[in-house]
């Protein structure tokens, strides 16, 4: 067992830019791709993930200090320190059971594929820690290790079904065939669905409003670099950076916004040959059977709607932290809320009017979720010794799926209201699944409103 854990630790230490392409190389060879072609696909995917991670990091490094300055200008001081996903990951990998969840993820996926309960093959093994985190949270709150493992299994099932339901929409958004996203952050679309359906009835929200459509209305101001510059400058002024600092922040955000779509093309170059090979293999072995390749969310990062929404919501996030009663979290490391932006993108097909509105409505969920989880994550940190607490409490302001994780944990604690809430949540998930099956792909939506 210790040898197996050492092997897993070694592979994880290679990093996702090597780990995921290695899996893609193996799958490509299984799908009978020529070695040279499979190797090039894997290398290109590694370059794409590395490039995207660098630009996302660059964006975060530019925006986060402005967010901190903006928060300081408000004079607020809240007790729970936001460490973001890195703190949560450190705690999770320090848990003795964490590595077991590789087997859980692979086992559930293969069983569902064998029984034709999913079309998605999740190769995003890097994010296995997210399932382990859910299990650890549920275990800590409920005291039941069995409940923790069941929660992780349920999460794997939901992620695979989200991979199925969003695949054709993701293919339309990215242009990459037979590829989908199996990240828990997509689950934010579940609670957003009722408001999105209400917006279906309002003419303003039925106008095509992705960045491409906006070019016809606002011209140069809809260009990625120009939008990034304007948003960055305004954020700089909000942080009291002054003219020079604000202009520099504007250029930094503009740079990232310009680079995202360039790097995203590399995902297509890498994954399209693999998708073709997988499709041919499935046609030969299983009549009329498709298999989707499930990957991490950065394959969507070339869509500028994600970044416009996420950065516009930064001051909203801080504003809510100031005024919401009972909130104990000042969003810092998790200030760029990918969960709201990515879930909103998939649900609305990239409609910026809807994405920003949904973000404003649902941001409090993450602050209250992080407040609830602060003593839990702090307790786990003390137990594992993975994070130096320095006498304070820690949390994660934009944790993915806070509603799912908290409801399951409290339901496992035999909290009647949580049990009812979890049943309602799963019912809403089924509702979302049926809704997305009927919803036109993003490029075909809102066309009746375009003049």
TrEMBL record:
Any one Pfam family match given in the protein's UniProt record, by short name: EIIC-GAT
Listed GO MF terms: galactitol transmembrane transporter activity
Primary residence: membrane
Membrane spanning stretches: 12-31, 38-60, 95-115, 136-158, 178-199, 220-243, 249-268, 306-323, 329-348, 355-374, 414-433
Keywords associated with the record: Cell membrane, Membrane, Phosphotransferase system, Sugar transport, Transmembrane, Transmembrane helix, Transport
Membrane topology field: Multi-pass membrane protein
BP-aspect Gene Ontology terms: phosphoenolpyruvate-dependent sugar phosphotransferase system
Residue ranges occupied by any PTS EIIC type-2 domain in the UniProt entry: 8-432
Subcellular compartments: Cell membrane
Domain of life: Bacteria
Alphabetized PANTHER family for the sequence: PTS SYSTEM GALACTITOL-SPECIFIC EIIC COMPONENT (PTHR37324:SF2)
Protein name per its UniProtKB record: PTS galactitol transporter subunit IIC
Organism: Enterococcus silesiacus
């Amino acid at each position: 067992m210790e040898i197996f854990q050492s092997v897993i630790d070694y592979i994880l230490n290679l990093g996702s830019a090597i780990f995921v392409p290695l899996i893609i190389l193996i799958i490509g060879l299984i799908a009978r791709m020529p070695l040279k072609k499979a190797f090039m696909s894997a290398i290109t995917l590694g370059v794409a993930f590395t490039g995207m991670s660098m630009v996302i990091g660059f964006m975060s490094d530019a925006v986060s200090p402005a967010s901190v300055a903006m928060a300081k200008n408000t004079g607020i001081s809240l007790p729970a320190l936001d460490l973001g996903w890195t703190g949560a990951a450190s705690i999770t990998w320090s848990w003795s059971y964490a590595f077991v969840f590789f087997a859980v993820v692979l086992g559930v996926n293969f069983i569902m594929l064998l029984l034709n309960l999913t079309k998605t093959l999740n190769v995003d093994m890097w994010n296995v820690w997210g399932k382990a985190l859910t299990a650890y949270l549920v275990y800590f709150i409920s005291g039941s290790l069995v409940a923790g493992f069941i929660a992780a299994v349920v999460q794997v099932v939901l992620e695979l079904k989200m991979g199925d339901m969003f695949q054709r929409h993701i293919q339309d958004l990215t242009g990459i065939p037979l590829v989908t996203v199996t990240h828990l952050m997509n689950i934010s679309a579940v609670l957003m669905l009722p408001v999105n359906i209400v917006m279906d009835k309002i003419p303003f929200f039925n106008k095509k409003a992705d960045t491409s459509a906006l070019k016809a209305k606002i011209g140069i101001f809809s260009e990625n670099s120009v939008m990034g510059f304007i948003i960055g400058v305004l954020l700089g002024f909000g942080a009291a950076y002054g003219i020079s600092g604000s202009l520099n922040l504007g250029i930094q955000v503009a740079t990232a916004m310009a680079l995202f779509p360039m790097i995203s093309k590399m995902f297509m170059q890498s994954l399209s040959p693999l998708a073709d090979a997988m499709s041919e293999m499935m046609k030969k072995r299983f009549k009329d059977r498709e298999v989707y390749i499930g990957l991490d969310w950065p394959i969507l990062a070339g869509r500028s709607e994600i970044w416009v929404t996420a950065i516009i919501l930064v001051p909203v996030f801080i504003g809510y932290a100031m005024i919401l009663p009972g909130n104990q979290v000042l969003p810092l490391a998790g200030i760029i809320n990918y969960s709201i932006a990515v879930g909103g993108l998939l649900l609305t097909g990239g409609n910026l009017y809807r994405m920003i509105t949904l973000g404003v409505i649902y941001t409090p969920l993450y602050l209250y979720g992080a407040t609830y989880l602060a003593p839990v994550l702090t307790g786990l940190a003390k137990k594992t010794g993975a994070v130096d607490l320095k006498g304070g409490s820690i949390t994660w302001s934009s944790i993915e799926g806070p509603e799912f994780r908290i409801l399951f944990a409290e339901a496992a604690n035999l909290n009647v209201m949580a049990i009812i809430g979890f049943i309602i949540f799963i019912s809403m998930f089924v509702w979302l699944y049926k809704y997305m099956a009927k919803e036109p792909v993003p490029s075909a939506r809102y066309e009746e409103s375009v003049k």
